[in-house]
Amino acid sequence: MAEGSVSTAEVKSAFQKFAVHGDTKATGKEMNGKNFAKLCKDCHITDGKNVTTTDVDIVFSKVKANSARVITFEQFSQALTELASKRFKGKSKEEALQQIYGLIVGKEPANAGVTKVAKAAAVDRLTDTTKYTGSHKERFDDSGKGKGKSGREDVPDTSGYVSAYKGSGTYEDKVKNP
């Protein structure tokens, strides 16, 4: 190996990280086209000039088996060799491949642009339970925690014959003490 060269084990670990990204059933031994494109994008192999996303897709299709939808690490290495000569024009195959490996090593799938929770003043105002009025005020306790079903419904009192009778529980007293 040349000086400053990268070991295949390091490249393989990056390959595995990208191979399992976004796929709960992935083993890390094979990579699909979407994750290959993501690896090329996140590791800056695609630069928009020499290597475009189209080039990445074409190389992926070329190295995979005809009926397969995934590539193995060996096919992945083959694909990188093809992309290396495009990305680093004028360099020897070995030099270009080492530079591509250098871009990949230690990289993990970036979750850039993952949706963040909106924090706006309007949302804060709408969800501040201390400012609720009327029947909505009854749905939360003093700490702002919801009361659940008891805060949403008028639970009927089914204890007596006549609902809402003020003198409930006094019948026995009236009958015994006339």
TrEMBL record:
GO terms for molecular function: tubulin binding. This is Tubulin polymerization-promoting protein family member 2. InterPro entries: EF-hand-dom_pair (IPR011992), TPP/p25 (IPR008907). Pfam families: p25-alpha. It comes from Austrofundulus limnaeus (Annual killifish). It comes from the Eukaryota. Keywords: Cytoplasm. Residues 135-155 have a biased composition (Basic and acidic residues). Its main location: cytoplasm. It is found in: Cytoplasm. Residues 132-178 are annotated as: Disordered. GO terms for biological process: microtubule bundle formation; microtubule polymerization; positive regulation of protein polymerization. Belongs to the TPPP family. The lineage of its organism: Eukaryota, Metazoa, Chordata, Craniata, Vertebrata. GO terms for cellular component: cytoplasm; microtubule.
